[in-house]
Amino acid sequence: MAIGLGIKACVAGYSVLFTTIPLLVNELKESRSNKTLRTFEHRFQKYDLVIADELGYISFDKEASELLFTYLSLRAGRKSTIITTNLSFERWEEIFKDPVMTAAMIDRLTHKSFIVNMNGNSYRLKETKLWLSEQ
Fold first, then answer.
1. ∠108-112-117 over CA atoms, to 5°?
2. Which pLDDT score is estimated for 122?
3. Contact assessment for residue 104 and residue 70, using Cβ atoms and an 8 Å cutoff
4. Who contacts 33 (Cβ-Cβ below 8 Å, separation ≥6)?
5. Contact yes or no for 30/65 (Cβ under 8 A)
6. Which of 41, 74, 88, 92 shows its CA 20 to 30 Å from the CA of 111?
7. 3-class SS at 96?
8. Which pTM was predicted?
9. Cα angle for residues 8, 111, 74 (degrees, 5° grid)
10. What's the CA gap between 122 and 101, in Å, rounded?
11. For the chain (length 135 residues), average pLDDT per consecutive 10?
12. Strand arrangement, sheet containing 80-85
């Protein structure tokens, strides 16, 4: 669904960045190490839509959590962001390791937001079963 919305935004002329949360965190940490964080910030703010996939597969250290919080907060209320995750909000503290930062992140990301809860079977599992039945 996130990819479909991203494609629709591109077709409508909006600039879109699709990334995974782990890749975004690595890029943020590398930018900080290389002292190019300000350049990254300017580039990151220019996108009309950022789609950040896979929040929750990997937990972060304190530095990564703070960087991710800062850069996603910069977009809050200004530009569109789609976050995909397989974790409920109650479990986000497992990722960020800080209850205050977790609450603030959820607060900023959910303010004036649409939350789509998609429960159901995995489409990948469904496709695999179909593929196996055809073999």
1. 90
2. 77
3. no
4. none
5. no
6. 41
7. helix
8. 0.88
9. 75
10. 31
11. 96 98 96 95 94 90 92 89 93 91 93 88 84 93
12. 16-20, 49-55, 80-85
